[in-house]
Amino acid sequence: MGNDAKLKRDIGFLAAGLLVLNGVVGAGIFGLPGRLYDQAGAFSPWLILIFGALIITVAWTYAELASYFTKTGGPVAYVSHAFGPVLGFQVGWLLYIGRVAALAANTNVLTDYLSYVWEAASGGLTRGIIIFTFIGLLAAINIFGIKRAVQTVNILTFFKIIPILVLIILGAQYLTPEMLLPQEFPKIDDAEAVVLLVLYAFVGFEGALITAGETKEPKKNLPRALISTVIVIAALYFAVQLVYVAVSPTGGSDVPLVALGRELLGPIGGIIITITAVISIAGNTTVIIIAAPRMTYAMAEDNTLPAWFKAVHKKYNTPSNGIIFMAIFAALAAISGTFIVLAVASTLARMLATGICILGIPRIRKKADEVTLKNAVKIPGGYLIPVVAMLVCVFAASQSSIKDWIYMGGFIAVGSVLYLINKFYKIKQNDEGL
By CB neighbour count within 10 A (0-12 exposed, 13-18 middle, 19+ buried), where does 46 fall? Predict the structure, then answer.
């Protein structure tokens, strides 16, 4: 359903898988282990597996949705097709602010890790300069073309995964049977925050769907990349958390993997993990800034955002205006918020948007022609897996506090203003035409 003439199809199966991997593996795994261990102790790795299994139902549901479409926009396209452009805009904007919040949250973690080797990075003017410079570089790489951005992701993937695997291998010697099978379920003091933070470590895989208009054979490559990569990520997270529990490093609440690296390799380990965290977050945020501007591009194509957002760079064929807007928006959010607040806002926004996408499945199935329906991903059990995925979304949203909803409401207000400006401008154009 749909096609994009202006955008180039430069993303293959491997690149799509790496986009999923980098869309998920970023600041979450570098900021989560310490907080999760403090709350759930030896049971914390199993929490990751439990939520990983639940998230796979969401990924599987998205895989079916992706198999019906070839156009850029991902969830925006799905909901617009099922329910019309107005609700499509609302879902698109929710996912968009989820990515703005994620980019801002991850950049905050970046400054936390940099402060391990450069104290000035943790606050004041220096922190602001780092945030604007980092996000500005991401924007520039993206403007220069999707192929360059994906190549950057591929390189960063290698340099961030290898050190994490080394930590897992070195920490495995500390594992005992008791750690693998904890005897008691822990009493979690702040269950709401734990749920949302664990989910935050997994969200982001849907970003690869937004690049369908630039992916080769998207109906085939995107679903395969989505499901297989999320399974790999769940296993990786489980192993990292298990090793963290086994080693139990101290003094690492803000930079837990630095503490783990120090424990296993001494001071040099802390430096290696700091560099790895920076690389990992760079890869993750590169994927975010690949996906989000293409959402505003899709919404502008559907006439729900001002036409300014669908401007494509004449030389590089990228949505340059959307990239610049995203960079400024995220940088301002990063300076004003903290990792936990921004991470929770990001998770909440995505879960709400995902729930609406799931509700659209029956209508999308009904509207599909025979060929599309025949070639679509078949989910066993009819609607069972989408229903479980919906329950995950509802449960996650129910864990949010009033403060989280208020913070997210501020982001939504920005989108509403842009929507109204666009609507007013079009009404004015029509009046002038008459």
Answer: middle
Which of 27, 37, 43, 31 lies closest to 250, judged by CA? 37
| DSSP type of residue 68 | T
pLDDT confidence tier of residue 5, bands split at 50, 70 and 90 = very low
**Taking Cα atoms as reference points, which of 390, 315, 395 lies closest to residue 348?**
395
Can you read off the two tokens belonging to residue 159? 């340099």
| Paired strand residues for 11 | 215
**Residue (of 243, 267, 119) closest to 180 by Cα position:** 243
Spatial separation of the C-alpha atoms in residues 104 and 335, rounded to whole Å: 8
Instruction: Calculate mean pLDDT across residues 108-112.
Output: 83
Band (3; pLDDT cuts 50, 70, 90): very low
Pick the closest to residue 361 from 340, 339, 387, 337 (CA basis).
387
The residue to which tokens 């949505």 are assigned: 319
Length of the chain: 434
Q: Which amino acid, 270?
A: G
Of 150, 391, 388, nearest to 289 by C-alpha is: 150
Measure the CA–CA gap between 115 and 92, rounded to whole angstroms: 35
The overall average pLDDT reported for the chain is 79
**Quick check: 431 pLDDT over 90?**
no
- What value does the mean pLDDT take over residues 121-134? 85
pTM: 0.73
The phi and psi torsions of 215 (rounded to 5 degrees) equal: -110, 135
**Which one-letter amino acid corresponds to residue 135?**
I
Instruction: Select, from the ranges 145-149, 191-195, 246-250, the one with the highest average predicted confidence (pLDDT).
Output: 246-250
3-state secondary structure of 11: strand
Q: d(Cα 392, Cα 221) in Å, to the nearest integer?
A: 25
